[in-house]
Amino acid sequence: MYKVTGELCHDNAPAVVAAGLSAIASGQLAFDLSELSKIDSSAVAVMIEWQRHALQRGAQLQFQGLPGSLLSLISLYGLSEQFQVAVPERH
Predict the structure, then answer these.
(1) What three-state secondary structure class fits 82?
(2) Which residue range or ranges hold the STAS domain (predicted)?
(3) Cβ of 39: how many Cβ atoms within 10 Å?
(4) CA 2 to CA 39: how far, in whole Å?
(5) What's the CA gap between 77 and 74, in Å, rounded?
C-alpha cells in the first residue's frame, strides 16, 4: 500500500503526482491518505491524475483513509463515482 503523508496542496502537487505515478508503475494500487495533514483542491486533481494513469495501465486504484475535507471536495465536484474509496468497517 502506498501511503501519502503531510500536505497535499498546490505547492507540492507536482511532486506528489510524480511520487504516486512511480508507486503505480511499481504495482501499488492501494493508496492510503489517512496521514494527510493539510489538503486543498489540488488533492482532487492529483487523485484524478493517478486514477487516469492507472486506468491507462488497465488498473483501478483504491483509496483509503481519505480525510473528511477531501471526501467533501470529491462530493462537491461530483466525482464520488470516479473513485473507489474504501470505508473502514465499524464494529
Answers:
(1) coil
(2) 1-91
(3) 19
(4) 17
(5) 5
Residue type, 19: A
- Domains of the chain (ranges; CATH) run 2-86 (3.30.750.24)
- pTM over the 0.85 mark: yes
Q: Can you tell me the distance from the alpha carbon of 40 to that of 75, in angstroms, rounded to the nearest whole number?
A: 14
Contacts of 39 (CB under 8 A, 6+ apart): 7, 8, 9, 67, 69, 70, 73
SS3 90: coil
Q: pLDDT of 37-69, one tens digit each?
A: 999 999 999 999 999 999 999 999 999 999 999
| Spatial distance between the Cα atoms of 48 and 51, rounded to a whole number of angstroms | 5
Q: Sheet of 2-8: strands edge to edge?
A: 2-8, 30-39, 62-64, 84-86
Cell 486504484, located at residue: 61
